Amino acid sequence: MKKIYLLALSIILISCNKEQQATADLIITNAKIYTVDNDFSVATAMAVKDGKILATGTNAEVQVYSATQTIDAQGKAIVPGLIDGHCHFYGLGQQLQRVDLVGTKSYDEVLERISSFQKEKNKSFIIGRGWDQNDWEIQEFPSNQELNEMFPNTPVAITRIDGHAMIANQAALDAAGITITTDASGGAIEIKNGELTGILVDNPMELVEAVFPKETTQESIASLMAAQDINLSYGLTTVDDAGLFKETIELIDSLQQAGDLKVKMYAMISNTPENLDYYLNKGIIKTDRLNVRSVKFYADGALGSRGAAMKEPYSDRHDHYGALLSPIETIKETAARIAATEYQMNTHAIGDSANYVVLKTYQELLKDKTDRRWRIEHAQIVDSADFNLFDEQNILPSVQPTHATSDMYWAQDRVGADRIKGAYAYQTLLKQSKRIALGTDYPVEQVNPFLTFYAAVARQDTSGYPEGGFLPEQALSREDALRGMTIWAAYFNFEETEKGSLEPGKAADFVILNDNIMEIPVTQLHQATVKSTFINGEQVYESK
């Protein structure tokens, strides 16, 4: 009798297990699913349960499951949720509330946009971003004379597209306490004929930013939610925000916990004494949607504003080398402090001198450590002798392909024909480190990750210039570009076991594309669009 009872119980348990295994929340069939697993295998169907990938395979293999929701993909391509390896998510949201100067073709157009903005908004402090003197007929920094005349009593501060130069009117300079005797270490305060021109480069900009009006909580929430809408529409499910303060990180966490902010965040804390004291002592903070375990550090400025630190003078400015934003000893001391914790150090380095200093600092501190995954953000101009300082475990390159196609019109003028060979060298970096993370650096560039994909593969602008591509030997394959925007980016975030590929047990973060970026002509890649975006199995965006 006992044997019969046990046999019956076993049959019941087996039946229950089969019934449980055969149930899913969502099944997608008739798709072309790029799983981005180790074999880069392609499936036609996928099952999702409890926010995780349950199975991938053929239609027949996946249809053994029953589901409350089914989607016939009608042959569309599906890729893992895209990860922006370096962006400014919160900054994008803030910029949406400010003067947009992107695409201006002259300083007069900049002034027109500011005037129109102020007539509509009537701000007590006018803040904007996006101008680029390299796009103007006269490719020089302007002065603040017109801004002083237009706004004698209202502070105005407008930042260059790269975030590393600013034009401030006299009212803003006065509010910040900036005079001709103000210390300009780690940057520049331009003075002509004994007077301030309003041009600030790198560190002195912080003096003006310190007197910006403080955002209300509701304004900050509005910024975050507006940024989310844009990101989800492009299939971005995880974003690496390169520089956040405690107050913003805690607001992000609260919105995620409340279910309002769906996007996942890899937060790099801004390098301030307050942030370091708090987070390095507290340790890693990890939830399903938030990961705080890295420090964003600035080694130098940007190439476009000639603030990038170079080993030799700029080719288009005699005796000008750019500048490190912190003394080398400060870089080493900060790195040593971070190395003593579990935190990752992610350092902005553009010029070959800045890259060398950071690479050597990393190498010395991490020589006896494994799997630290410290990142060089941008790795833009690297001396050919220094590429071997990158490695597979401790020192990794995080790059933004659209920087190459934005800068290519004038980059060689800045650095010359020899140094340009080590610029935007994504294929060389990939061969050295075996992985490379791709991002946009928005709002410096556009949010659109398909521009990232196109720039990485084609090395051209959207008009097809230049023929054959800019430094075409540094182009990535489509497979490697997709890896750089998914599984490799997840690896750089210590998250490769939970996202970045569509494999059983991983988060059901995925994107249904209107255009198959793995098959359409290269010339069409930048025009690709998203049909649907899913995070943890939940549809968070549907195109209209």
UniProtKB/TrEMBL annotation:
Residues 69-541 form the Amidohydrolase domain. GO terms for molecular function: hydrolase activity, acting on carbon-nitrogen (but not peptide) bonds. It comes from Nonlabens arenilitoris. SUPFAM superfamilies: Composite domain of metallo-dependent hydrolases, Metallo-dependent hydrolases. Keywords: Hydrolase. InterPro entries: Amidohydro_3 (IPR013108), Metal-dep_hydrolase_composite (IPR011059), Metal_Hydrolase (IPR032466), YtcJ-like (IPR033932). This is Amidohydrolase.
